[in-house]
């Protein structure tokens, strides 16, 4: 599959790039994060107090890396890519969201700290992404680019693919997008290149292009119908289909008609054939020819801004615990890994008793040890940083988990938990884990099923729509109240994909809503405790 540069793929991009620089809104520099006194070590302090890890904060990202130049360069590139996505999707006012945590790693062992991998022979992971009701993490293994010079870079392909997906879900605003479109769109942007004032995007990835040339294709109707949703060939055909749709204004209009029909309940294949005025057989044949006709975009961009980036060093304990902290935010399902995290935190604090290490130890004790053991640590940390939303959240989580384990004290513990969760949310209105925890802490109170608690869940879902479990819990609460149409409206747009195990619950919940079967209290409370980390699309 060969591609040549073209002047235009998406009209919105061309129009935006022709606008004067002043027409683009400049991202605001990030405010310094509220921290305990020794949570961050200012560059220049003695080496024994410093970690190899640093934190680089920009408007939309918080990067963690060991190389400052690399962190600054990647922060700038991701911010520029974010601006490109806003232009391509005509997102003038992005949905509210906390900055995305991005980890620049060096080797499979560090990726393994975030999740347990299961790779087949000949496969390797270039990064990881997972979204949960307690946090979202994106990581890239930079080692591959260090070992081999390649265009596009491994890290760019991974980060651009995953951030495109994250961005689409963040800004879909409750509208349905089929999995093949999300996957195809992100893969078309995976090979984006920034060369000075020039942008290239829409170029086919070499490995996917090879799949299209040498493998026997799946019938395209199986992809449109959602019957095939994983594998290299699925990715290649989805990327080609989305490229074909976006390459022509008339086909983009047809796609809008297709979305409107599927959102109103029409079966995907019938909706596609009617919207595009073609049969699946004809579409398949057209895509077979199009793979050699497809072009990519090279355009001059003058409206992008250079973001401000604030860099700080983490304290020494971060060498041992930074990746464990990230893993706990997205969930660690394996008991042996949980206990390993707790042991590492105990050992690290025994060697370096800085605030970062004590914070991570408190979190590990709450999740995998005895929650009450975290009290003294959290109280001391909160004396230094009384408005730190994460510390306030952890204090609430300590009482929530204690109440989960003992029914006799649940009401008192949950009451204490919701006071802390409320303080965390007041300290940072975008800190959605506190909203989610606050709602669960009401499960022993008379006002649990109420408009106020449902609105809190919907606010959390707005801030983190990638965390499907929040929407699942909100829909379950609606069904507990008999609001079946509202539950169906919330569930129907969710993209069901094997990458996100939480989305696998959606078909059964939709059937429950359509059958007007109420959810009981046990089903609702269980939804708060569902944990499953994301999988990779094509391997593990």
From TrEMBL:
Keywords attached to this entry: Signal
Region listing for Disordered, in residue ranges: 23-42
Signal peptide: 1-23
The keyword ATP-binding belongs to this UniProt entry's keyword annotation: no
Keyword Cytoplasm: no
Protein name according to UniProt: Tetratricopeptide repeat protein
């Amino acid at each position: 599959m060969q591609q040549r540069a073209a002047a235009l793929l998406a009209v919105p991009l061309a129009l935006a790039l022709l606008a004067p620089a002043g027409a683009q809104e400049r991202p605001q520099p990030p405010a310094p994060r509220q921290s305990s006194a020794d949570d961050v070590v200012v560059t220049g302090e003695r080496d024994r107090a410093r970690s190899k890890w640093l934190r680089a904060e920009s408007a939309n990202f918080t990067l963690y890396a060991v190389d400052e130049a690399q962190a600054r360069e990647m922060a700038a590139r991701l911010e520029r890519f974010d601006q490109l996505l806003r232009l391509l999707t005509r997102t003038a006012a992005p949905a509210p969201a906390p900055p995305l945590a991005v980890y620049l790693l060096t080797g499979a062992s560090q990726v393994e700290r975030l999740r347990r991998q299961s790779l087949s022979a000949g496969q390797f992971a270039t990064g990881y992404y997972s979204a949960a009701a307690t946090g979202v993490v994106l990581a890239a293994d930079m080692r591959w680019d260090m070992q081999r010079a390649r265009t596009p870079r491994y890290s760019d392909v991974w980060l651009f693919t995953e951030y495109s997906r994250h961005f689409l879900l963040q800004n879909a605003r409750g509208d349905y997008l089929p999995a093949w479109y999300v996957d195809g769109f992100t893969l078309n942007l995976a090979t984006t290149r920034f060369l000075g004032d020039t942008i290239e995007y829409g170029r086919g990835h070499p490995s996917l292009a090879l799949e299209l040339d040498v493998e026997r294709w799946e019938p395209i109707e199986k992809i449109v119908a959602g019957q095939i949703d994983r594998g290299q060939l699925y990715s290649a055909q989805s990327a080609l289909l989305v490229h074909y749709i976006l390459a022509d204004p008339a086909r983009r209009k047809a796609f809008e008609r297709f979305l409107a029909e599927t959102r109103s309940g029409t079966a995907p294949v019938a909706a596609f054939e009617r919207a595009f005025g073609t049969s699946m057989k004809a579409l398949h044949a057209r895509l077979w020819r199009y793979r050699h006709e497809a072009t990519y975009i090279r355009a001059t961009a003058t409206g992008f801004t250079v973001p401000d980036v604030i860099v700080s060093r983490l304290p020494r304990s971060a060498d041992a615990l930074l990746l464990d902290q990230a893993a706990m935010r997205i969930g660690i399902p394996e008991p042996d890994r949980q206990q390993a995290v707790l042991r590492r935190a105990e050992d690290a604090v025994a060697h370096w008793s800085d605030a970062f290490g004590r914070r991570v130890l408190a979190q590990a004790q709450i999740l995998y040890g005895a929650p009450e053991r975290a009290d003294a640590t959290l109280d001391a940390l909160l004396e230094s940083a009384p408005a730190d939303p994460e510390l306030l959240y952890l204090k609430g989580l300590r009482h929530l988990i204690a109440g989960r384990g003992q029914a006799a004290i649940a009401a008192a513990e949950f009451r204490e938990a919701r006071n802390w969760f409320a303080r965390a949310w007041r300290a940072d209105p975008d800190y959605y884990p506190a909203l989610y925890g606050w709602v669960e802490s009401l499960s022993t109170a008379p006002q649990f099923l109420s408009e106020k608690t449902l609105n809190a869940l919907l606010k959390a879902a707005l801030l983190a729509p990638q965390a499907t479990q929040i929407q699942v819990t909100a829909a379950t609460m609606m069904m507990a109240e008999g609001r079946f149409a509202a539950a169906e409206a919330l569930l129907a747009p969710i993209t069901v994909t094997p990458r996100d195990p939480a989305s696998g619950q959606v078909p059964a919940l939709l059937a429950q809503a359509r059958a007007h079967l109420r959810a009981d209290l046990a089903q609702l409370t269980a939804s708060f405790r569902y944990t499953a980390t994301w999988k990779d699309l094509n391997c593990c």
